[in-house]
Amino acid sequence: MSAVAVVGAGPTGTCLVERICANAAELLSWPSLDIHVIDPYPPGGGRVWRKEQPDLLWMNSTAADVTLFTDESVQCEGPIRPGPSLAEWLGRDPGLFAPRPVQNAYLSHVFQRAVKTAPRGVRVHVHATRVLDLADVPGGQAVTLENGRTIEVDAVILAQGHGDVTPTREERSLAGLAAGSGLHYVPTGYAADLDLDAIPGGEPAIVRGMGLAFVDLMVLLTSGRGGRFVREYDEELVYLPSGREPLLHVGSRRGVPYHSKTGYPFRGVRPPVPRFLTAKALGEGPWNFHRDVWPLVRKELAFAYYHELITAHPKRSRVGWEEFQEAFAAEEWGSLAMRRLIRQAVPRHLDRLDFERLDRPLEKIRFGDSAGLQKWMHGYLATDLDRRADPAHSADHAMILGLLSVYGVLAELGISDPWFHGFFSYVASGPPGPRLEELRALAKAGVVTFLGTDLQVGHRDGRWWAQSPSVPGGVEATTLIEARLPAPSVSRATDPLITALRDRGEAEESAGLLKVRPADRRLLDRSDTPHPRRFAFGPWVVGGRATGGFARPGFNAPLFRHADALARIVLSETVATQISHVA
């Protein structure tokens, strides 16, 4: 009897189970394999996508852009097992942003289908508990469970996804200040996991962060407290307060929210990328991301952007694509010749791609008072909503496709950079357009006030305070909310298995992520020695950022390619010893 343990039953673990089942018949010479899936939460959704969440919380991808089934675009050695996207499974509008409990039902369907269609002799066992520890035994691994059982398997794959961490020193200090001053402090975390009831209504609350975590908190603290959005006769969205919502004063490093999702189907030809970001162009590592990688990334993204602009909107360019691409390929990004080429080819300044303006739109802008900043932000939100809904700006969508391609390439090369992950999320992984429209309505109703860029937060005279160089002065409040997820950190992980492995030197981190050997995802110990029977996969693993989100149909998603490759390695290289299971 052979066996594999998959620790984690969320989307990452579900994809691995499906790929192991899909490859088992080809790679195993005997028809007998037990797959042990271990997670306190039900398989499919796991913890993050559990069904016990408010319907108010949506997915941030359209239903048509979500799948956990391979299709003909996926370039992998294992068999392709097509299945419906979320939109097809629901039989609903492809542009729907589904509530998270609905996504849970879809993920549960994917898991159950993988189990039901597994080859004869392949059995999937679900253990609703946690793994406490691993130990080497002859020919395999002993997996100690929190429920008292020990299971012996050939190999273990860690696929826990995003895990909890202990607070940072700053967070502990702020929590201590709150406790000593009678203030409210909401730490980092998933909105659905936080206790928001203690936040008083009708009073100011400082919010640090303007990404997806902020959008979820915004929804729960407004609509979740009885407020309503209505359409005026001119179709403008208006917020009707309940009186129970706090007054949110929000700022961040950029000072603006993530860009909204595009609200139109992309009709153009997929940009011909990747082209410039290659292992050959990068040379031998190690690499400094901003010096060695970012210039090639920018060139790749610009190539995707201008390909769509020139081919789909030729009247906005003075040259044809063939002429442009030849000259573009010959020049280095940022060079004088490159800038001259773009100016000559694209006459309108607003049609040119400006990465600095895109990344930091509030940079070096100063306002005389808060009213000036609020007016600018209202216009910024309106412009973003209009642009992301207008196919005349489909070059933006093409650049997002380029970002997805770049993300996959970086994953293949084992390159992971926190700054770039933030840039990617800001540009390509923002909230649904309706959420940004709600934010604008909340700002007009005075429920949300924008604080600006490079937000600084502190404590003085028994209250929280916040200020930004965007405007003079600042704001005080009795509540401080960290509207962001905790950064990955193996050294601060609370997962008992990660803690046990880390403390013994059997697991190590790099930039907060779990270290693995990129070629086969084998877990590396403190001396960088790969373990022959331990693997790790997912967004908390070095090189795994591109596997953390949901796959888009027809896009040769890294999630499928990497999960398939890992499943085949585990089945062919480690599942070879008959092991008995110990209760």
UniProtKB/TrEMBL annotation:
Residue ranges annotated for the FAD-dependent urate hydroxylase HpyO/Asp monooxygenase CreE-like FAD/NAD(P)-binding domain, each copy included: 5-162
InterPro entries reported for this sequence: FAD/NAD-bd_sf, HpyO/CreE_NAD-binding, L-asp_N-monooxygenase_NS-form
Record's protein name: FAD-NAD(P)-binding
Organism: Streptosporangium subroseum
Upper lineage: Bacteria, Bacillati, Actinomycetota, Actinomycetes, Streptosporangiales
